[in-house]
Amino acid sequence: MKKKKLAGAFLSLTLAAGVLAGCSGSGSSEKSSGDGDTIKIGVNLELSGGVASYGQSIAEGLELATAEINKEGIDGKKIKLIKVDNKSEASEATSGAIKLTSQDQVAAIVGAATSTNSIAQVQIAQDNKVPVISPSGTSPEITFSKDKLNDYIFRTSFIDPFQGTVAANFATKEIKAKSAAIYIDSSSDYSKGLAAAFKEQFEKNGGKIVAEEAYIAKDTDFRSTLTRLKSAKPDFIFLPGYYEEAGLIVKQARETGLDVPFMGGDGWDSPKLVEIAGPKALNNTFITNHYSSGDPDEKIQNFVSAFKAKYKDKSPDAFNALGYDTGYFLADAIKRAGSADSEKIKEALEKTKDLELVTGTFTLDEKHNPIKSATILEFKEGKQVFNTKINP
Amino acid sequence: MELIQQLINGVSLGSIYALIALGYTMVYGIVKLINFAHGDVFMVGSFVGFYSITVLDLSFVPALLISMTVCALFGVLIERIAYKPLRNATRIAALITAIGVSLLIEYGFIYVRGAQPEAYPNDVLPTDKFNIFGVSINSQSILIFGVAVVLMIILQIIVHKTKIGKAMRAVSFDADAAKLMGINVDNTISATFAIGSALAGAAGVIFGIYYIKIEPLMGVLPGLKAFVAAVLGGIGIIPGAMVGGLLLGVIEALVSAAGYSLWRDAVAFVVLILILIFMPQGLFGKNKKEKV
User: Fold this and answer.
1) Is B162 inside a domain boundary?
2) How far A208 CA sits from the closest chain B CA (Å)?
3) S-S: B285 plus which of A7, A314, B43, B234, CB 3.0-4.6 Å?
4) pLDDT of res. A29
5) Residues A270 and A336 in one domain
6) Domain count, chain B
């Protein structure tokens, strides 16, 4: 036994020595960022595994932005992306962040796509003082957890509760709803967060919440609850769930004769929603999303055509847009920092103000969440159509 | 008016429970086995119906018949492979085997085709809405209730008017005596599994059309609820399963209507517990003394 333990200790010592040697070899004295004319940016994304489609979409958008930025360069320097695949797993995201900060000595990290994998990098980034920007992590916990700001962590997307606020403003201003009902998935924090924000804002706008009902993910029969909702006679129903149940609920609601507008968040954004609910039942329903490729705004249309030119006529989705914006968000900060030093980039990121990007013009708040507009999409015969943009 | 609408909601849900519960009750009546794989036969039926409609491009009635046939064969297969060798084993051995078969079907299915859900096409049956005195009735719920009633009537005719029905009743009464009278007990048991599974298959197709979304684990909860329905009506008694199913559907609808939708599943099992404590023989059961 004792022998084994000793051998183990010896092994780990040699390993540690190896790592240290590696560091001193490539790192030199100055912390961070490239030689003379390149700035190294780490990319820690879900390139394989369960949510690979998110990570790949972000990478495509980011690569497009990098190519555009590198045409002119930032003060003569070019951005070099160093990609690691976190395989959609939190532990891999952590070790990816370790590799990027210690071995590659990057100036900043972009990633990850999901909230869980972004949170997995927080400690490493804080310890090494390297800014991390999560392109699409929407959980408030990423930048602000346990009553403490994670000051090296940023994000490009809006946070979950924000969608509820936007939906409430849309209901009051565009639908002119006086009363609303809320129907939540009680097994999902996402759904509860959106609902709480919706309720707060809708009541602030002078509206009345006439009914609050809940279901649990995987339920299939909602008719009884919907009949109950119908008798409460709301002008508007907020349904912040995921597409599987949302599709069933909308379909069954229309069959019960509940014809009022329904609205959800980005959890509805899946082709399966249309399959389940059917295009007809989905008429008069709305979702909030990060962006729409159908938005007539010039900046967005320029992005859409540049994206189509690079990726064989593929229409960019919200993740593509967020990846693209993350590239410009970072480039803007590096330019203002005037150097590729991690600490200076972090300070510049914090001061981001009125930056015009594809997913909205944004300013960072004190919790490192961007304040920007959200896009409202309407379903028309099963197609998502751009409706309007709502500012917070 | 709201109450009437809620009753209609409950009856539609209840007729699906009733169809599944019939299979439980028939199998229990004849071999005293709770066939926990029954909910998964329901799932297989739903998928067979789905593929018949989408891949083979069939309409509702042929898809229903194909699904019932496939499920009947599947039920017999399960009985022959898993339960027949255990006919004289302890009841607990058979029960555990049933749970094993259930898990095998669920996860075998996921292994073969993946766990992602499918959506039934929206246009299999017309969906017209009738408004009668402010009560909105969907034509699908009427059709579904109708199909369930027709299948139950056919079942009653089979059990009470045909030779195989007579054999089933005899075997359920006393298997050994039936064997002495020259009844082929093995075939009779297989026939029972076939009929019960066919009904579960039909319930699967109806469920798919009514609730659209189907997935490999969809049979678990309806299976358990149907088991509750069977116990509620008195397990082993065919009319009891029908009434139990409809009653459970209505109870669930009323619980949701009262605003306790999150308690709906819990209430179904509270019903089970209450029935087991106060009326273990069920609504239709006779209080039989155990022979010592």
Assistant:
1) yes
2) 19
3) B234
4) 38
5) no
6) 1
Please tell me whether the interface predicted TM-score (ipTM) of this complex is above 0.90.
Answer: no
Residue A146 confidence class, pLDDT cut points 50, 70, 90: confident
Distance between A382 CA and the closest CA of chain B, angstroms: 13
Tell me, yes or no, if the pTM score tops 0.80: no
How many contacts does A have with B, using Cβ atoms within 8 A?
74
CA dist A246 and A196 (Å) reads 18
Average pLDDT across chain A, whole number = 87
- Average pLDDT (A74-97) is 91
Which domain, by its residues, includes B73?
2-121+128-278
- Whether A275 sits inside 8 A of B119 (CB atoms) is yes
Query: What is the arithmetic mean of pLDDT over B27-47?
Result: 92
Name the DSSP letter for residue B122: T
Q: What's the mean pLDDT in B173-201?
A: 92
- pLDDT tens digits for A270-301? 878 888 888 889 999 999 988 888 888 889 99
| Residues 6+ positions from A142 with CB-CB distance below 8 Å | A115, A118, A119, A122, A134, A150, A153, A155
Confirm whether B142 is domain-assigned. Answer: yes
Using CA coordinates, name the residue in chain B closest to A249: B211
Chain A residues touching B143 at Cβ < 8 A? none
Residue among A283, A217, A218 at smallest CA distance from A250: A283
CB contact under 8 A, B127 and A255: yes
Range 192-221 of B in CB contact (< 8 A) with A: 211-213, 218
- State whether A314 and A356 are in the same domain: yes
* Cβ-proximal residues to A319 (8 Å cutoff; 6+ apart), any chain: A53, A54, A57, A58, A61, A113, A135, A136
Min Cα separation A221/chain B (Å): 7
Measured in angstroms, the CA of B140 and the nearest CA of chain A are apart by: 10
CATH code assigned at B267: 1.10.3470
H/E element, A319: helix A318-337
d(CA B173, CA A62): 73
Of A260, A289, A318, the position where a domain reaches its end is: A289
β-strands A132-134, A108-110: how paired? parallel
